[in-house]
Amino acid sequence: MANTTDSIACGGFVFYNNFDSANLARVELVRVPETSDKDGYEVESKSCKSSMSDDTADYEFNLWTKHDCHGTQFQNNNRTWFYFGVKACAADVSAKFNIVNLNKQVKMFSQGMCPVFKVVPGHIHWERIREKPTFTLDQEGSDFTLSFVYNTPENRKAVTYFAFTYPFSYTDLQNYLRRIESRVAKRTVTGTDDVYYHRECAIKSLEGRRMDILTISSFHNISMEREERLSNMFPEKNEQRPFKFWDKKVIFISARVHPGETPSSFVFNGFLNFLVNRDDQIAINLRRQYVFKLIPMLNPDGVARGHYRMDTQGVNLNRVYLNPSLKDHPTIYAARNLIRYYHYSYRLPTEDEVSNGSLTHEENTLTIIDSTCGITNIVRDTTTRLLQQVTLMTLDEKGKDEPELFQDCTSSKTNLDDMPQGDGEDLCNTPEESANSVELKSAKKTYTAVGIGQLPKEESGLYLYVDLHGHASKKGVFMYGNYFDDPEDTITCMLLPKLMSINNPNFHFTSCNFTERNMYIIDKRDGMSREGSGRVAVYKLTGLIRSYTLECNYNSGRLVNTLPARVRDGVSKTLAHIFVPPKYTPSVFEAVGAALGPSILDLSSNNPNSRLPNSQYRSLRGVKSYLKLAYVNNLSTPFGKSLHKRNAKNSGLDD
What is the DSSP letter of 394? Predict the structure, then answer.
């Protein structure tokens, strides 16, 4: 047995643990082959599949994975995640690995969960090992041992990597964001429907890693006023803040607060990739209607360290949203401040002061780009590279249509029936008209464009909040929402999850949970309440009804939905039903993220290629009627009795 910082040499094999998200602690040799004569021994190389039993493997090793915060005063008992590389001493031999100190995951592995592998060079794409692993429990039932056999590749220099599930490291994220940025930036902006994309570092983690935040929208209703630098945030002084948008609500989506829950990254990537599609009309409508604020990795230190659930101080960051500390929980501190900032529609709360000299404009006037006008002038912005060809027009009252970006303060473009009622009414004070407001008069109405941070009416600047997670125990893809006494609020909360089940084959609406107990349940391991989770804390901070946790099982689901055809495809294009749920892969998770797009537009009946008309519900009103009927029918046993008991029992620690 050997244990070094960079790698572990044992039994002629070399085990690697010195890369992003790796967490192998030590290795022990159990068995070596009795003879080196392998004549007649035939195996399929590069496949991780063996025709022999575990007991006849040539080599056997016991492996220990690191606890979260391994070797520090914050070490704890989270040890489900594993990720390591191995280079064999010989080609085409079999090796058995026993990972001996994992958390108990009997249910998941008894349901067919398998680790994943890749071979570099050679088999460079991750896939599940092809032979079902075995597992055992010690007498106390605490330590869980997972065992699997693999055949070493023909290339003796190749390294085979194994992981608990499909990895997505901090390094992977930075590379992915660079590719997205390059893809968007290389295109010349030709119209207001083009993609506005801005990436910046919101704050540095405890160990100095970036917590990126992306701003994505169209150029409709964009102002020439930049967002303020919130106090103690945005440390990269060479990165400018994004521009503000007028009369566009914010959709806030985050992922990877729990490092080992990699499905959340793939869901995030699927949504991001869909959202920056320049040609898809659904993506175009999304960008026209909303501003998207996306945080791809809330716990970059935990990810880089190979943790499963905690940060580097042993804290579950999804329990501190109510009162995060700048010193101890900087990424959650930043996320909460941003959520509050957008809730107040760019108005700074009294305790958040704008850093001196951070504003890029000398005057607090709000200049708006009229999205109804043609492109005549060019404005260059060296940071975003996205305002290369944008119209700067003087608003002329004569002979012009009313600019759509200035809305009557007594009305809204969005159907009120589709909006959360009373979002943040107790938190937003009625703004007084500021000295920097601009008054525009036409023959019909007077419009007021209010300057920095002023709200034209009492409502939240947020439309939707979703925090993305992975789930170990309960099958399928589903959402947690909050509990409401008001039936109308309950229906509003249930609507997006129901639409997701119409737009994605693997989304389980019947597994969703909207119970009060699920808002305040106490974790057995750390004694912390879900009241401090993003989902619950955002509702308490803003009153936002559409505040969710989206969960994806690592392995598979219970059912597959039959999706109705899109309206432009015709009824004949209804997809053939698949009865057996698939094994979940990154592409399955990415499709869940992509389905968020049409589901969000269905909420406001603004989906140009909706599935609703060809569904059994026929329309958004039909979906609402179904939910109301289900709610009434379950008043005696609140929506889905099984949801209460089963969800509370099986929700585990994944929210």
Answer: -
How buried is 513 (Cβ within 10 angstroms: 0-12 exposed, 13-18 middle, 19+ buried)? buried
How large is the average pLDDT for residues 521-525? 85
As annotated, the active-site residues are 551
8 Å CB contact between 108 and 556? no
- Amino acid making up residue 235: P
Supply the pLDDT for residue 554.
98
Locus of tokens 């997701």: 500
Residue 362 has pLDDT above 70, yes or no: no
> Which amino acid would we find at residue 509?
F
Burial of 394 (0-12, 13-18, 19+ CB in 10 A): exposed
User: Do 195 and 222 meet the contact criterion of CB atoms below 8 Å apart?
Assistant: no
Distance, in Å, from the CA atom of 78 to the CA atom of 250, rounded to the nearest integer, reads 35
End-to-end CA gap in the chain: 38
Is the bond into 121 cis (omega within 30 degrees of 0)? yes
Per-residue pLDDT for 568 more than 60?
yes
For the chain, what is the largest distance between any 2 Cα atoms, rounded to a whole number of angstroms? 96
Would the CA dihedral through 597, 598, 599, 600 be positive or negative?
positive
Asked which of 21-35, 108-122, 445-459 is least confident by mean pLDDT, the reply is 445-459
Average pLDDT of 265-274?
A: 98
Band the pLDDT of 493: cuts 50, 70, 90.
Answer: very high
Q: Which two tokens stand for residue 109?
A: 């592995």
Take residue 2 and report the two structure tokens written for it: 């050997």
- Helices vs strands, H then E, count in the chain: 12, 22
Read off the pLDDT of each residue in 360-384 and give the average, rounded to a whole number. 36
> The tokens of 571 are what?
């009824």
pLDDT of residue 507: 98
**To 5 degrees, how large is the angle CA 178–CA 182–CA 185?**
130
- Whole-structure pTM over 0.90, yes or no? no
CB 203 within 8 A of CB 225: no
Cβ atoms of 203 and 333 closer than 8 Å: yes
Q: Rounded CA gap, 396 and 97, in Å?
A: 74
How open is the CA angle 558-561-565, to the nearest 5 degrees?
Answer: 165
pLDDT digits (tens, 9 = 90+) for 368-378: 444 444 332 33
Tell me the C-alpha to C-alpha distance, in Å, between residue 113 and each of 23, 164, 554: 20, 9, 8
Q: Give the Cα separation of 130 and 507 in Å (integer).
A: 26
pLDDT in tens, 233-265: 999 999 999 999 999 999 999 999 999 999 999
Is residue 212 within 8 A of residue 294, CB to CB? The reply is no
Residues 166, 586 contacting (CB under 8 angstroms): yes
Q: Which amino acid is at 61?
A: F
Least confident of 2-6, 294-298, 505-509: 2-6
Residue ranges in 16-150 assigned as alpha helix (H): 106-110
Question: Do residues 219 and 371 touch, judged by C-beta distance below 8 A?
Answer: yes
Of all helices (H) and strands (E), which one includes residue 60?
A: strand 59-65
- Is residue 416's pLDDT more than 90? no
Cα–Cα distance measured from residue 412 to residue 410, given in angstroms and rounded to the nearest whole number: 7
- Report d(CA 84, CA 7) in Å as an integer: 10
Q: What single DSSP character describes residue 117? A: E
**Which residue from 60, 8, 57 is spatially nearest to 29, judged by alpha carbons?**
60
